[in-house]
């Protein structure tokens, strides 16, 4: 085979075979195919799309480019959840223990945050002593013992995706449904899940800006999952305001504890219960999502979900007194209110601007090398649909900086105020199953 012929084939919109796609991915991973040829192929894909068979072949070739985690020693159906990234998205911290409290094994590999979205691992590390680097046999043992472990990625999962993503980033080829879908699904499949629940977010703070684009991506991922033998369900959820109230590591852990105690923000609790219901059904621990929902709600109210979180924190070396008394979690030295300059109704809270504000305060990383200040962030006081008077507090800035004016400006800019009343926004737009 010659790469130039395959580039030309794709440019003429002729379907590539599975063998050809495997050859390309192997060659690129082994550095036999140069970046300039791979870039040309990627651009042809951006323009000509990929067929269902090509998308599956690309995903599987990327899975096979590295290690595949073997979770077969864990009893039961292993269901993973993936979010395409949002601001204030602490759902994994709540979903893990909640679903595990129903007997569903959760063996989760999570990532760190970069840019305006936070990472589950960083949030967990705001709990003193929490260890997220665990050997594979211990990881599996912990899931068998208590049904839940969350760790950093181990091994060399889907290296082809890592190289391709870096190339796409600098060649204007990130925005392509087949390339995004295969990138995300290759990592999920390599991480060993039997079934996958996806939370595809759209809006200002999200990767996909519109509902239509998010739907197209979600459908593509569900098809790939199914064709690869993994039951997959995708949610389409709104990111036109941050999820819950808290943005920042320890602040989000605190909100997760409140939610696990049945006292969380309504939007966050509802999304968690809906996602968890589908995970429980996929794991065959409930006959339908309505039944699962009722049982899960009970687990939030009777303390079992919170108890599971404590067990998990203890198993990974974390200080459980911080879970019992969240005020022992890291805090910021000052809390500054950000007030409304006009009266009206909150129409929109630009999640991207809030995410940037949190990052400027030190809650996130602008570059991989940055260190995180665990106690800082933003806590919203008003959400979309609420009426406000001039001088009302819109949000609180939790800061250790002498001057937080830049972050405050981002927060002010994020709030759009309307003079006429605004409906509370829909959070879950669709579920593709
Ligand atoms: N996230 C991924 O993992 N891959 C993409 O291509 C885009 C977002």
Architecture overview:
The chain has 433 residues and is of the alpha/beta class. 45% of the residues lie in helices and 15% in strands. The protein has 17 helices and 13 strands. The protein has helices at 3-11, 18-29, 35-48, 52-63, 91-100, 120-124, 136-146, 159-171, 177-190, 211-227, 249-260, 266-282, 289-301, 304-315, 321-324, 351-361, 405-414; strands at 79-83, 106-110, 148-152, 195-202, 231-238, 246-247, 334-339, 344-349, 377-380, 387-388, 393-399, 415-418, 428-432. The strands form 4 sheets. It has a 4-stranded mixed β-sheet with strand order 1-4-5-13, with helices on both faces. A 4-stranded antiparallel β-sheet has the order 6-9-11-7. α10 (211-227) links the parallel β4 (195-202) and β5 (231-238). α5 packs across α12 and α9 (177-190) packs across α10. The longest helix has 17 residues, at 211-227. The protein is globular. The protein starts with a helix and ends with a strand. It binds uracil (URA). Uracil binds next to α9. It catalyses: 2'-deoxyuridine + phosphate = 2-deoxy-alpha-D-ribose 1-phosphate + uracil; thymidine + phosphate = 2-deoxy-alpha-D-ribose 1-phosphate + thymine; uridine + phosphate = alpha-D-ribose 1-phosphate + uracil. Homodimer. Belongs to the thymidine/pyrimidine-nucleoside phosphorylase family. Residues 279-306 form a coiled coil. Keywords: Coiled coil, Glycosyltransferase, Transferase.
């Amino acid at each position: 085979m010659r790469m130039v012929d395959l580039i030309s084939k794709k440019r003429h919109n002729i379907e590539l075979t599975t063998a050809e796609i495997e050859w390309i991915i192997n060659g690129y991973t082994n550095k036999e195919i140069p970046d300039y040829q791979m870039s040309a192929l990627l651009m042809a894909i951006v323009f000509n799309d990929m067929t269902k068979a090509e998308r599956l072949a690309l995903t599987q070739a990327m899975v096979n480019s590295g290690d595949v985690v073997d979770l077969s020693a864990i009893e039961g159906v292993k269901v993973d959840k993936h979010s395409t990234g949002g601001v204030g998205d602490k759902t994994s911290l709540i979903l893990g223990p909640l679903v595990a409290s129903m007997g569903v094994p959760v063996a989760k590999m999570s990532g760190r945050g970069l840019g305006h979205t936070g990472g589950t691992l960083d949030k967990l590390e705001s709990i003193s002593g929490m260890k997220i680097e665990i050997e594979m046999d211990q990881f599996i043992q912990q899931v068998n013992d208590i049904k839940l472990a969350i760790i950093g990625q181990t091994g060399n999962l889907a290296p082809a995706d890592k190289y391709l993503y870096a190339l796409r980033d600098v060649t204007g080829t990130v925005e392509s449904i087949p390339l995004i879908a295969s990138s995300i699904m290759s990592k999920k499949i390599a991480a060993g899940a039997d079934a996958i629940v996806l939370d595809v977010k759209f809006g200002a703070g999200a990767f996909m800006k519109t509902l239509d684009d998010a739907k197209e991506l979600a459908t593509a991922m569900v098809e790939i999952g199914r064709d690869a033998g993994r039951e997959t369900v995708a949610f389409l959820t709104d990111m036109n305001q941050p999820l819950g109230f808290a943005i920042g590591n320890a602040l989000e852990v605190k909100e997760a504890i409140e939610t696990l105690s049945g006292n969380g923000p309504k939007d966050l609790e509802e999304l968690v219960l809906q996602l968890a219901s589908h995970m429980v059904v996929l794991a065959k621990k409930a006959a339908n999502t309505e039944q699962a929902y009722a049982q899960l709600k009970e687990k939030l109210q009777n303390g079992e979900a919170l108890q599971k979180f404590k067990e998990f924190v203890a198993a990974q070396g974390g200080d459980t007194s911080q879970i019992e008394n969240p005020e022992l979690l890291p805090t910021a030295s000052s809390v500054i209110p950000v007030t409304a300059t006009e009266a009206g109704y909150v129409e929109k809270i630009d999640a991207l601007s809030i995410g940037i504000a949190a990052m400027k305060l030190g809650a996130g990383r602008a570059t991989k090398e940055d260190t995180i200040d665990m106690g800082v962030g933003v806590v919203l006081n008003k959400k979309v649909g609420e009426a406000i008077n001039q001088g009302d507090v819109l949000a609180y800035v939790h800061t250790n900086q002498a001057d937080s004016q830049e972050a405050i400006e981002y927060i002010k800019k994020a709030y759009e105020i309307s003079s006429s009343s605004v409906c509370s926004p829909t959070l879950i737009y669709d579920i593709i199953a």
